[in-house]
Amino acid sequence: MRKSAPKRPAIALVAAVGCAIAALPTPMARADDDFVALAVSVESGRAVGWGTGASQEQANRVALAHCTAEAGDVCEVVAGTRNGCASVAFDRLSGRFQGGSGPDITASTADALAKLGSPNGHVKATHCSS
């Protein structure tokens, strides 16, 4: 009877992928980061990635990378702004989510909740540019 080959390549692949995900830097707002973005998992709405950058495009890229690493599936940017805050509101009952933005945390959370338009909504995440 022939033994099957050990499954080391699969373990190495899992370890390599895990290391690549762990290697993503934690987003931190810096003094020159005028833009902020929030991204959410399209499938679950649960994973949220955020990023800041010198441009909206850069902030979006960072947010998408972190969301994708966290969720393991497709993410989309749902909120972003310059010199302010971005929030995402979520309704657990319906699974819907909506992003919002504003000059401060209070305004961005109110915007996300108003756009969601659900009495069951709650703010899942808020992040601000520098």
UniProtKB/TrEMBL annotation:
Signal peptide location: 1-31
Keyword set includes Signal: yes
Keyword Chloroplast among record annotations: no
Keyword terms: Signal
DUF4189 domain: residues covered: 36-120
Recorded superkingdom: Bacteria
Stated name of the protein: DUF4189 domain-containing protein
